[in-house]
Design brief:
There is one protein chain. The protein has 85 residues and is mostly helical. It has a single domain, classed as Orthogonal Bundle (DNA polymerase, domain 1), CATH 1.10.150.
Length: 85
């Protein structure tokens, strides 16, 4: 299957490759949500950073990552912090 992720402005080749490894396409990310998509990536790569979570949120909203709302950033930080425990 051809990835629809390469068309997203925030997703580079490395991130796209990781998402493809867990069979995560943009339409699937929209269905399962960013946190679930991130959990699958985190299981594959425990060093996945919070920036990846931001990128997933921005991809769903189809906006540049730097325009992600402060609310989404705070939610992401809390979720990421809970994973680190």
């Amino acid at each position: 299957m051809i990835s629809d992720l390469s068309k997203q402005q925030n997703i580079g080749k490395d991130t796209e490759a990781k998402l493809m490894q867990v069979e995560m396409f943009l339409c699937r990310i929209k269905v399962v949500g960013t946190e679930q998509a991130y959990l699958q990536l985190h299981a594959m790569d425990p060093g996945a950073c919070i920036q990846l979570l931001y990128v997933l949120h921005a991809a769903i909203e189809n906006i540049p990552v730097n325009l992600l709302s402060e609310v989404k950033k705070q939610e992401s930080k809390l979720f990421h912090k809970l994973l680190q425990k």
